[in-house]
Every structure is written in structure tokens, then in C-alpha cells.
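Annotated sample (chain length 153).
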Amino acid sequence: MNKDSIDKETIKNLLPHREPMLLIDRLINIVPLKSATAIVKVEKSSFFVQGHFPGQPVMPGVLIVEAFGQAAAALTAHGIDPNEYKNKLVYLMGIDKARFRNPVMPECELHLDIEAIRSHGRVWKYKGVAKVNDKRMADAEWSATIVDRNDKK
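Output written by the structure step:
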């Protein structure tokens, strides 16, 4: 992978998410701390397909929002000094202006174009558009914060 993209293994080093909740497969077109496109492979084997909905599977809107959040967290973590980020996590704080325009069906590649629109200290604001084959599926704005990792078990 080149420096303007990262694969799933690298994403695992940046985020605490693991299967089945790690939704993003790659981050491409990275402009550090500014923007990127996340790739989500929506498969027939995706954990939500069997029950949402039998015979008419669609990716739940809340999982599209979760994927937006994961993409933003990976973008932010990837752009911060690794020594500064190693004991941190990025938490979703709020979701604004979420709109679900078309259903996301299995056997597609969902592209999440995300952009950091503002940061103030540990709080970041993002916006994103979800697309399949350049067709807008959803869009949202959200905020997140960088917090200290609590390693207590």
C-alpha cells in the first residue's frame, strides 16, 4: 500500500474494533487529518444480512453511521503522531443531519467520502457521503473526541 492508503491490518493497529464490528476494509485517497475515502465490502456473509431483513437484506443505517465514525477515527489516528496517539481512542459524540437516501444491498462496495471540517482541541467535526457506484446512499455530519485509553480490566 502507498502512503495515501491503508489496509485492514493497518486499520486494526489504529482502531480497537474487531470482527464483526470492524466495518471498514481500506482507507484510500488519504489527505492526513483532512479527508479520505473508506471502502466497506458489503457481502452476503456480512453479519447483519441474515436478520436485516430475511429475503430483502439491506445494511442498517446505524451501521453506515458506525462505518462513517470508524473511517473518521482511522483518518484521525493515522494523521496524529503515533507516540501521541498510542494511548488514545476516538469516541463518537454526536450525529447530525443523517439522511439515508437509498438502501445499501449486499454484494456491493460502499465508498464513504469523509472530511474533517473542524477541530478544536480533542473535539473533531466531520461530514461524509456514502456512495455505491457513485450513487448517493447516505450522508451525515458527526463529531468525535480523542480520549485517554482506559486499560483497566
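Annotation: The radius of gyration is 15 Å.
Annotation: Residues 101 and 145 are 27 Å apart (CA to CA).
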